[in-house]
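Hey, resending since the last one bounced:
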Amino acid sequence: MTQRRVDIRQFARLLKHTESPFTGQPFVPEPWQDEYLDKLFNTLRPDGRRQYQRSLLALPRKQGKTAMCAVIGAYEAFFGEHGGQILIAAGDRKQASLLFTACSRYIESCPGLLKRCKIYKNSIVVPSTNSTIQFLSSEHKGKHGFNPSVVIVDEYHVQPNRDLVDVLESGMGARAEPLVIYVTTAGMDRVGPCYDEWQRAVKVRDGIIDDPTFLPCIYAAEDDADPYSEETWKSAAPNYGITVRKEFMEREAALAKESVFQELKFRTLYLNQWCSNGADKFFRTGQFEACGQPLRPPGDRPCYCGLDLSSTQDTTAFAAVWPGLDENGSPDGTYDAFAHVFIPEANADRAEAPYRQWAKDGFCRITEGDITDYDVVRDYVLSFCEENVVRGVAIDRWNATHITTQLVNEGIDVKPYGQGYASMSAPTKLLETLVIAQKLRHAGNPPLVLHASNIQVRQDDAGNIKPTKSNSNSTSRIDAAVALIMALGLASAEVKGIDDDPQLVVF
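The structure tokens again:
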């Protein structure tokens, strides 16, 4: 068994905080931290070894998870198993390095510990115990060579699978007191290892599963709790009023009330609630419609366009945006937006939209036959480009080779544009910001209003978003809104001064 000379809660008090507002103050565990550390390290088996071998530590942001795990890592290196390997693991190297850096700084805050170890760029070595602290990510190629005594998995919700964790856990078989701590906040993806581990932890906590080696520690608001109640905030955040203040929560709650996406973000990050990915509309009722002010004359302002081809039997959408300019000719942060859709004659009487009326009003082209005639789409784009100062047309890469070639041959600056998280996240968030601030003008454009009202969003665990429909079979169209987002992607890139190279603008 491991002989520990110092209780971890006493050890914590040797260290000093290195970040504001507690810089230079001793690390005194808060009541919930004290309870957790006591259970984790001082609950022993009959043979004197530590009882708990695995733990889920699930809390909202700004609750001191990183600091406490840094203390655990340092403690194990100095007072844990001889020859210990303490590994900090995360989805990417940057995230893993954050906890490692915190661990290094806490050790540096205590001269007595600092003189007993060597701190390197990628590792901390404690000669007296022959122990090391290292960090690695899912990208690490040499994962099979480790023999860890402790593994701290940071931000477990971003791990795409259990591959990294399984490899590290399998290397712990010979250890006397192996310990794995899964550190996380709630995420958006319920299909993954973190949600599975979370559900199992809840069952252990509630006595449904009997596992005396597993310690659950979950602080989260109930699913049906009022997200804007201070009582809810207190129930989810054990450090409420300490590391997260009421004023901060009030500010974040105010933002959450402005849009569905902001509310989902607020609930996952600060209430620690698992929220359905893409289950709600992006804009609240009437929010997009409120931006229906008349368009300003384009004049010689530069214009940026997006073309969402969809399928030949579905609606194809073209959108354009003109960045607003002040009296000095500089961008003023506003945009004028226009959209036009195309649909084959065979589908023109579908119930989801009055396509024939739109055609009469100049917002739609109905092409002959059963499929959308891309020649008609091409001719419309060419005509539009002749009448406006078009700096680029973003086209979805899917099934776009032929029309792209035709437009390029006509001298149009076509920019192939992906519709994944990387390319769509920034302009989708920009659209939300513009709508909330009413800095978008669309003159009540019918296809744009309808399609924007149908948008839902999906979010990955890195916080990137993209527009989507409720399901692939839905009749709710979003094509005009998608084309608008693509156009905003081109426009915002140039407005910010990014070089007009497709490789830089289009991700």
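The mean pLDDT is 87.

Sorry for the duplicate.
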